[in-house]
Amino acid sequence: MKTFFFHLMPYADLDLSYTERHNSAWVTLPNSYFDRAVGQKLYARYIGELELADQLGFDGICVNEHHQTAYGLMPAPNLIAAALARSTKQAKIAILGRALPLVSNPVAVAEEFAMLDQMSGGRIITGFVRGIGTEYFASGVNPTYSHARYYEAHELILRAWTEVGPFRYHGRHYQFDYVNLWPRPLQQPHPPVWIPSQGSSETVEWCASAQRKYTYLQTFSPVKSAKKAFDLYRQVAEREGYESQPSQLGWAIPTYVAETDEIARRELKPHIEAFFNKFLHYPLEMRMPPGYSSIASTKSLIESKFAFRMMEMTAENLIELGMVVAGSAATVRERLAAYARDLGVGNLIAMLQIATLPAELTEKNLRLFAKDVMPYLREEGARTPRRVAEPATP
Amino acid sequence: MREATIEVAGTKLGYREAGAGATVLFLHGAAGASWDPLLDQLSGGYRVLAPEHPGFGRGQIPDWMMSVGDVAFFYLDLMQALQLRDVHLVGHGLGGWIAAEIAVRNTGALASLALLAPAGVETREAMFDDIFAWTVEEFARRQFHDAKLAQEWQRQQAELDIDIGLQNRTALARLGWNPRMHNPQLPYWLHRIDVPTLLMWGEDDQVVPFGCHVPFKREIRRAELVALPRSGHALPIERANEVGTRLDAFFRGAKG
Q1: What range defines the domain where residue A273 resides?
Q2: With an 8 Å Cβ cutoff, are B177 and A295 in contact?
Q3: What is the pLDDT of residues B22-46, one digit of tens each?
Q4: Which of A28, A290, A295 sits opposite B173 (nearest CB)?
Q5: Chain B residues touching A141 at Cβ < 8 A
């Protein structure tokens, strides 16, 4: 199994009592909560943590895009990726991802990724997402066009990377008379594409189709949902006439390693609870703007997931649900190895800095993980048995 | 009141109809189609046609529907298909916006235009709050001046099929997400409206601020403004009697 360090770059100094006056850490939380000097320190610290992961031998480091939120300070993840392209040496740099429907010019996304691919010596992994519901409030993009713009932008970017230009692209949402990329990306036929999602079956099927075979990344969800999505991926692959590999699946999960199980749970508790209860905090109207998902998915989200997301999470029930892995190195590697086997997943996207987790604990987590967990997982990956597609669960 | 469906230029449309006489075409607001007390009252003296906008209710958003301007062309097609003449076109909120977009395009079939707190035009001094950020409770509270009516409306909404509520919001977003519930180009063309026009607005409107009447009043030559004190946005429910009476007098005056 390959291991990646995923950083959200949260505003770690967030005054958590904001919830007494505001109902969201996204879009409407006044930026008077953002201290300029703290911001400067956090960027320096976080880029340093990503660089440390490269030095410690992680297979990759990951950044992502969110707007107008304390949850993550990377509205332009390619800027961070550009800094890392110069300061890191061996790790893959995964941008998970750019929110395609939000941009008015997908060709610019293709260009930026091509530049990053060149600058990093072919080390980038690109990610395409729709952005969560709040981004449509932040960007003004009409959420009823979210899917259509996503597919159109994706098609345009892939063509820009792979076709000889100039060519003409006249879509419903994007029109260009000249698409002719300078530079072309370094990796051939194009940089890898990973698709992070929370398990929508439409997304899983789209990734798994034989013409794409994109790596599907399940993010921050109970282990049961992850398994369901991965099983679906394998079934689709089989239906499409090929055998999916563990490398086509990834799982993003907050992970914390300390000297003992007891210390790990104690140290992590306030930070993981802040992550789910304070940083992932928004009203339903903002999370689900109209037209962002189909009526059926919106309904099921309102009925199931939301009840679950909106409840006050504790570190204990998060660990129980398999949404977090925390413990001694032995506990963590056994748990993750078991997941690798049971889920047939070949990429672990470990979020090792979590919400308010301070610098010292983050560094300790990174070092312990790299020394006592990562080597074991790498071997474990090599031994991962080939997974066979399972029958659909009703 | 009867309910029926017609097909216009390939798009199916549900509508409600009651009464006889000169035609009143009523275009509903953001909350969706409903047979409000105002329509009951008007159907005493007029043939009231109240369609449900394309993409609302049980409909799917048609491929062609990308803006309120598209919906305006659709309703011009509808009036032609039904051979409507001398229509008293009435629109509330979103429906008022659509009505204005119809009238700037073609007033040939119209006898008059009545805009009840229309969306569509915003001023720097009176900007809309974000309707898409509101909970149902807040939407209810903002529509009504009378808190009891707001509670009653909210209770009725809770009884509606959730699918319809979600579809209505989706269709509304298609038309009014960006720019939020207005068309910056519309004020430039309001001068084209050449039929008698009545603007009615609640002075306490918390959905489409009263101040937004200014460009309508200024640009439409034959516009008359009726400001309703102690009134919110839901004029067809909360001020049905008063609005109905005023409309009746206005229609009579506009007749020839």
Answers
A1: 2-383
A2: no
A3: 999 999 999 999 999 999 999 999 9
A4: A290
A5: 178
